[in-house]
Amino acid sequence: MTVDSNPPLGHHFEKLVRHPDEISTLEPHDCQQQSGIMMEECQLPLIDLIGLNSHDERERAASAEAICRASSEWGFFQVVNHGISPELLRKMRKEQELLFKTPFERKATCGLLNNSYRWGTPTATCPKQFSWSEAFHIPLTKISDQSCYGEFTSLRLVMTEFAAAMSKLARLLARILAENLSQQGGMLDDICNESTCFLRLNRYPVCPISAEMFGLVPHTDSDFLTILYQDQVGGLQLTKDSKWVAVRPNPDALIVNIGDLFQAWSNDVYKSVEHKVMANGKMERYSIAYFLCPSYDSLIGSCTEPSTYRKFTFEEYRKQVQEDVKQTGHKVGLPRFLQVKNAQL
Questions:
Q1: What sequence ranges are listed for the domain Fe2OG dioxygenase (predicted)?
Q2: Which of 144, 136, 141, 146 lies closest to 116 in space, CA to CA?
């Protein structure tokens, strides 16, 4: 007898709708297809980081400039020659798949990875707030903790190496973005530490319900920047020029996106862009995200004046996001911290 490793997403979703045809209450712009026309697919800016190690100053400057330009114009970009070996990425994916094949009851109750397992959207009150996915969201401080892994001993070794490599890359990119704003590149190193940086292992099971289902609801990231390692299934979408576009998977690249804190800190020079994942009716999808976050008491202020946003701590920001999601069903984010608030917020 086979033990089902999938979370009861369908059962939970059914509670949100009285009748199956109410699934159509998803907004038209949230569909992967509209009137039979496939959504536009985009190729994110592709940046070769090998230029950062060049002996030629112009090549180093060109690579850094490409990172900053993409962060301003897109809020997203891809990197190759990023220093993380293909072998390590393959090992991490293999271990991730084995972990998610664990029976659901064990994932949900046995305390794996700091008891960080989550699935679906317990707070959802309508289909537009529901995510068809499961994840482990682990603080870096726990990744080397042997007691978090049980029998998954090989996962610990691989994930420890993977987290260190992603952290190194994230800090390199953050320093480049800071120096572009005439700030000391190391200042983010002082406030971003293992206690608040995270890895999130994601799995998006096959979704038989609707092509309009979110794997992950539309949102922006509440960090400085995120690095994503994804498979080739696709499903990631972002807003570009006020419309949703699908991101074409690139087997050789990692995806980087700017978070809310970098947008606030850069005084809107860099853009934290809304993005989402659409579920797939035929194939499951895997991804791993690294989140570069500051300590909770870190004060986030704009690097130039006049500032678009008032100063706030990371702890204050996270609490406000959680309260908004609880009260409204969605994240409001940076508009809550504008110097002159929108009267409708």
A1: 193-294
A2: 136
User: Shortest CA distance to 144 belongs to which of 129, 163, 127, 131?
Assistant: 163
Residues 6+ apart with CB under 8 A from 198: 137, 138, 139, 140, 290, 291, 293
Largest alpha-carbon pair distance within the chain?
65
Nearest residue to 118 via CA among 132, 105, 134, 130? 134
Tokens 């499903």 belong to residue:
235
Q: β-pairing, 243-247 with 41-42?
A: parallel
Asked if pLDDT for residue 104 goes beyond 80, the answer is yes
Could you tell me the CA-to-CA distances from 122 to 11, 167, 220 in Å, in that order? 12, 30, 19
Residues, the chain: 345
Q: What is the mean pLDDT of residues 116-144?
A: 93
Question: Counting beta carbons within 10 angstroms of the beta carbon of residue 135, is it exposed (0 to 12), middle (13 to 18) or buried (19 or more)?
Answer: buried
Predicted confidence band of residue 26 (pLDDT cuts 50, 70, 90): very low
3-state secondary structure of 56: coil
pTM for the full model? 0.92
Provide the residue type at 201 as one letter: L
Class level of CATH domain 31-305: mainly beta
